[in-house]
Amino acid sequence: MLDKKVSKLAIGTAQFGLDYGINNTFGKVNHEEIGKILDLAYSKNIRTIDTARIYGDAEAVIGQYDLSKWNIISKFNLINKTSSIEKELDISLEKLKLKNIYAYIGHSAEFFIENPIHWKKLIELRELNKIERIGFSIYKTEQLDKLLDQGCIPDLVQFQYNIFDKRFESYFQYLKSINCEIHTRSSFLQGLFFKTTLPDYFNPIKNEIKEIQQMFPLNSERAAYLLSFCLENPFIDKVIIGVQSENELQQNLEALNRFSISKKSTISIADLHMELLLPYNWPKN
Predict the structure, then answer these.
(1) Which site from 189, 201, 259, 282 is most exposed, i.e. has the minimal number of CB atoms within 10 Å?
(2) d(Cα 232, Cα 161) in Å, to the nearest integer?
(3) Count of CB atoms within 10 A of residue 70's CB?
(4) Domain assignments of the chain as residue spans, ordered by start
(5) What is the pTM of this model?
(6) Burial letters 7-30, b for 16+ CB under 10 A, else e
(7) Which of 131, 124, 123 is closest to 100 using CA atoms?
(8) Do residues 9 and 241 make contact, with C-beta atoms less than 8 angstroms apart?
(9) What kind and span of H or E run contains 211?
(10) Phi/psi at 245 (nearest 5 deg)?
(11) What burial class does residue 280 get, using C-beta atoms within 10 Å of its C-beta: 0-12 exposed, 13-18 middle, 19+ buried?
């Protein structure tokens, strides 16, 4: 069971190209450590890497390794109006040193909501076998409703899902019925579950975070619990995890191996606090 659970993990690369995460005290991961992380992940039957053009130089960094045996997912954010999805994909492929990738998705669902014509271009690129699956990253359920109504039927969606944020659960069954892969991120809320001192911004949900910390005082057990919550959901295909070192990944895998859910949280976050859970709303300092 553990091997099946671990193989559902995907390596997130935001920390490979950016100083990323609310609990990140190490900055960008250095190149040598990235190689160790990827080697360990591959040895444990993890085969998916999630990256993006906006993750600093993450694509170029991982492109220094042999990615031919990996399923690579990249995301585009078409801010430059003189560019195009095709040009952005070609740039990513060049950085990754690949001729095609597993999936290419819009970093912002709003892009397709406001420019549905670009969805056709993504379909064309799929038909050219440059990408196998197309889709989008979403933050809110209303975005998914709009995209589906517009006929943007994804092969793959990515959204935040964790012990606090279960907004998309009602869509799981439908998404699987249309053969759409479900990839989730933010199992740890970018490390928020591990912060000992919380900024005042999080006061409305501070008690709930503290309760999780008290349930699992050891960071390793807490990480295993938060990951298991997502990995054991049969509708979820991949759970994206960002790590800063080979040792951190090893510790997470060992914790998963030892962990069995004997106590479950019944914590529920009020709908009115949901905006607090979205990292793009968090104060910069």
Answers:
(1) 201
(2) 13
(3) 22
(4) 2-281
(5) 0.93
(6) ebbbbbbbbbbbebbbebeeebbe
(7) 131
(8) yes
(9) helix 206-215
(10) -160, 160
(11) exposed
DSSP element (H, E) containing 184:
strand 181-185
Provide the token pair at 182.
């479900």
Mind listing the pLDDT tens digit of every residue in the chain (285 residues)?
Answer: 567 789 999 999 999 998 754 444 567 899 999 999 999 999 999 999 999 999 999 999 999 999 999 999 999 987 666 779 999 999 999 999 999 999 999 988 888 998 888 999 999 999 999 999 999 999 999 999 999 999 999 999 999 999 999 999 999 999 999 999 999 999 999 899 999 899 999 999 999 999 999 999 999 999 999 999 999 999 999 999 999 999 999 999 998 988 766 656 667 787 778 888 888 888 876
Of the candidates 94, 93, 107, which has an alpha carbon nearest to the alpha carbon of residue 159?
107
d(CA 111, CA 285): 28
**Tokens at 202, concatenated:** 């999080």
List of E strands, 77-155: 101-106, 131-138
What count of other Cβ atoms lies within 10 Å of the Cβ of residue 168? 19
d(CA 34, CA 218): 26
Buried b (16+ CB within 10 A) or exposed e, 90-107: eebbebbebeebbbbbbb
In this structure, whether the domain defined by 2-281 belongs to CATH 3.30.450.20 is answered with: no
